[in-house]
Give the backbone structure.
Amino acid sequence: PEKFAKRAAHYPDNPAALGLPADILRLFPARFVDSELGPIPEGWEVKEVHVFAKLQGGKQLPKKHIKPKGAVPVFGGAGIMGYTTESNADGFLITVGRVGAYCGRFFRHIGKAWINNNASLVKVFDPALGEWLYLALQNANMDVIKKGAAQPFVANSDIERLPILWPGKIVTSEFSTIVSQIRRLQDQQGNEFHTLDDLRDTLLPKLISGELRVPDVEKILERVA
């Protein structure tokens, strides 16, 4: 395509511009071909989601078990809807809202979680491709499979038939490895933020009431650090 021509011509003469090893760079073709997703790099393929994952519907968790804070997130139709102490999934998780205004949105989580009945779990066959598949799903056109006007929903079977771009095992594995490193840092910072957030909510009322004094707080913070 003309819009990519200048960019494609630039990289062969400047291989360091992408910051990729030569063996990986060779896997990115200089030509495009037509596909149902539009122009794609020559040699890449369009495959359906079911080749890489199977969708499994969530299970309803009684509202009395869902709290504003906790260790285990509860995923519903619009993402995290609260927290609980129970779980029905663990590991690298991709969830998708099935019912409601935000249906068709994908969410990523590492660790234990509860997938509620308005959401589904995307069970990835090869964990090494998890980060790539999550981003591929985010770029998929969900509007074509949404149904219902008053109460929009997406069916698991329709999501499994969605076409996504497959660059090949080598590219996706390398991509997932690089992205995983970045994501781990993001997750670590997120966990630290939530710990400090909980600590603030615990200490601030006690400081205001006079139950704690500043020297006491400093000792607590030293223990946390």
